[in-house]
What we know:
The structure is a homodimer.
Chain A: E1 21-26, E2 30-31, E3 37-38, E4 41-48, E5 58-62, E6 89-90, E7 95-96, E8 101-105, E9 120-121, E10 126-127, H1 137-151, E11 159-163, H2 165-176, E12 183-187, H3 195-209, H4 226-240, H5 243-249, H6 269-282, H7 287-299, H8 309-313, E13 319-325, H9 333-345, E14 350-355, H10 369-380
Parallel strand pairs in A: 5-8, 5-11, 6-7, 11-12, 12-13, 13-14
Antiparallel strand pairs in A: 1-4, 2-3, 4-8, 9-10
Helix pairs in contact in A: 1-2, 3-4, 3-7, 4-6
Amino acid sequence: MFEPPTASTDQQPGELGLVQWHDFVCREEFVFDSGQKLPGITIRYETYGELNADKSNAILICHALSGDHHCAGVHSFHDRKPGWWNNIIGPGKPVDTNKFFVICSNCLGGCQGSTGPGSINPETNLPYGRDFPWLSIADMVRAQHLLVTKHLGISCLYAAIGGSMGGMQVLQWGISYPHAVARLLPMATTARQNAQAIAFNEVGRNAITRDPDWNNGNYGRGKGPQTGLAIARMMAHITYLSDKGLEEKFGRGKVTAGSNRSPLDAEFEIESYLRYQGQSFINRFDANTYIYFTKALDRFDLFGPSGRLEDALSAVSARTLVIGFTSDWLFPPPQNRAIVQALLRCKKHATYAEIDMDLGHDSFLVEAPELYTLVRNFLSV
Amino acid sequence: MFEPPTASTDQQPGELGLVQWHDFVCREEFVFDSGQKLPGITIRYETYGELNADKSNAILICHALSGDHHCAGVHSFHDRKPGWWNNIIGPGKPVDTNKFFVICSNCLGGCQGSTGPGSINPETNLPYGRDFPWLSIADMVRAQHLLVTKHLGISCLYAAIGGSMGGMQVLQWGISYPHAVARLLPMATTARQNAQAIAFNEVGRNAITRDPDWNNGNYGRGKGPQTGLAIARMMAHITYLSDKGLEEKFGRGKVTAGSNRSPLDAEFEIESYLRYQGQSFINRFDANTYIYFTKALDRFDLFGPSGRLEDALSAVSARTLVIGFTSDWLFPPPQNRAIVQALLRCKKHATYAEIDMDLGHDSFLVEAPELYTLVRNFLSV
Lengths: 381, 381
């Protein structure tokens, strides 16, 4: 799975080239918000760039629902694709690895190396499955805080950056550890899931848990409710895009058809695209993690019992830039703007920026010069 | 299933009271757009009000994907709910049964009495299942035309009215039978499915056809891919509502929970609501019909190969009113407006009206005084 880095001759200018992951094995008891405990956790992470002498140049990247710790560079020169945010992270890029020490970890509860429901429960020698504690965004952030402070010895992050579920983690960092992060850059995110976002997650969870192979979350590696997980992903993928973006990319384009195809085969290009998205997802993601992460998303509510976002955000001391995207209908601009409005009511240093793009929620992941400029400028001061 | 009407004492003023369905059994060969044929078809329908002497007061109501022929009144005074458009159809209501003879039929391919994939194939004595011909919106309309002209002897409808898939049928009436309909009132509809609408239907179809009980469409009555159908319905139901409407109705409201509930039980009210919608749908709908109807929707494209909507709409001679709803994101206002714009370019008598409501696509089905006024006025001249 992992190849050690070798001297690179092919490396492109501005590209990180080969990167490697590491495991932080924390043998301290980890207590979840729920009160449940694990005797210890492992957090898989990558770093790019060099930590400076006073450890003041570290930037934490927080990933979204289906992301992981591998956000830039390649693990092998045979890799088809680099990390998921390679366009924005690298030498000379907006998150400049010539200046910054960039950290990205697989969230607690994940399925790419960090402890999660697919990890082996030492008490049973079987995967935790549904015995894994229910976790919150704050739990994910607490695990990241252990990694950053205890393991890497960094007392204060230069910045925390992330989109979608990553943006929630960024906000939680500012609230849980106000003195351990100097800049917050959440984007395409929300301070609480609204009913429609919960609704889509609930359909996805039902597709998974009503798959006959769900078996109450007990299944071996590479098995389990793969059909349900594919259906969940196909649906969710629509919510990451936009009406206009889909129309421009696919419209009513037809798949080239053989004469004896069934009408139930993919007829339109959008159908073929979604089927591919569903199928490729089951090869890299775990259904239990999907359930746990979507529950963490749905329970995320910085408005809290009082209904006042200011109550949570009053703890923040970091400078904050929140970026919304016009075509994002999963976490639309008003939900992003509301975070900044509440921060400003608390007399915090906060700015809202809105980028006019057609690609929907996933706009934050694609080539976007305006986003690059915003990120670069925010990190420069 | 059917109780004959009895003298009503409970009937509310303005309510139709007891209604009954009828079957039109057409023994002529029915040729589908695909070239496939059935030796005959049955169309189940209801009528309300009285046909006048010159048969000039007939209004056809066309139903949406999950609707049926029972659009007003009750079949029995024990019925929990009246027909699906009872708020708009009845004595003194916008579609006034004191003036008009109202007809509504279950679409060809349906599962509420008209010939569809669940009907018995006389050649095999088993349900057609996947042997049922693939059908188009135009096929549904051709069957309605047989009902209206051959069976009911009406040469020209006063109006055809319908929302969503019903709106597509209304448009198709104007194109296929320009001299058989004087007024078209489609609403919350489109002249062609766009990529996003196809995408959601494709996820629904995949949920059904990848359910182990799908069995390639061969299953007995009350059996089949019920989980897949419920998942499809839950997802589709979200697309019928709106972000704002869901937020106002459910927000983050929690289900009252017992202490030992699993986090996989419905936690939020929206989850409980969607599960109920999925479960109740499988009790009244057939998965094959869902597949056939959504394919008919996805293939509906009045822009045609030329990409010019005018080419199809130039045939229309009826006066047309198209109504869009601001919060409808399945068939948003621009898609409704585009129909009228094309009709006007063809020098047709056409008007577009937009109603500002928060309930999404399903706005056309709910109490809406502005809609009532538009319908009443359109039918009065």
